[in-house]
Give the backbone structure.
Amino acid sequence: MTTASTLPAGAPALPADTKAIAEIVGGMAFDANGLVAAIAQQVESGEVLMLAWMNREAVETTLRTGYAHYYSRSRQKQWKKGESSGQVQKLVDFRLDCDGDAVLMLVEQTGVACHTGRHNCFFRAPRALGGLTEIAKVEVDPRKLYGG
Amino acid sequence: MTTASTLPAGAPALPADTKAIAEIVGGMAFDANGLVAAIAQQVESGEVLMLAWMNREAVETTLRTGYAHYYSRSRQKQWKKGESSGQVQKLVDFRLDCDGDAVLMLVEQTGVACHTGRHNCFFRAPRALGGLTEIAKVEVDPRKLYGG
């Protein structure tokens, strides 16, 4: 079985060339807003870091540059992960799901993925006391990440 | 560091009780269509199995029953993963992200997660030949999964 945290045989061709990028993007099913959901997963540990959104431009830029780019629905523009904080994601593999509307990126995360300073964004979970408990600690002060 | 494939200290309280479920759902940010994105990850291997959607009802049913339920945008109703195929997902942990609009479920997957018969849905990736290559094999004939 191929686990998420191991790369299968065959060298990934990333960054990809223009022709490959056009073929990949052409096979994707963007939603009514022109977006797909994108998961970033740490390549070695298998840790799911975050979920964000990509438009066509963000997919193209990610595949061309080899660094994860997303689309901000609030700012309505493409952004490079880590452009402010330095916490970039180097792309190791780019996988499309069966429906073509979800992407799994295996990445090498520099520093922490979450804007709260935690290593990943999924740090709230139900525990014995009911409701949600924070299960991961802040590793980097967010004010240091964004100069706030 | 807490990796995605290990459970942190503190026993998960799943299935959750009514009060805990109300607290969890009350803190979630459903989009204009009443949905959040939900990732299913195999608890032991860290393999990302699939991405689908949950509405409020699907979250409540998942937390109440301890089995993953999603919302089908095409059929416009809740569905239990594996209800036709038997390939159910037993919930081990339920994690909410920093924005409250994405869920990470750690699950024990029975059989295969993908309707194509592959173990996970993210089986297409760019390889040396350009475009997308199928990187995982079909493990179960889909006709056997769905009686088609």
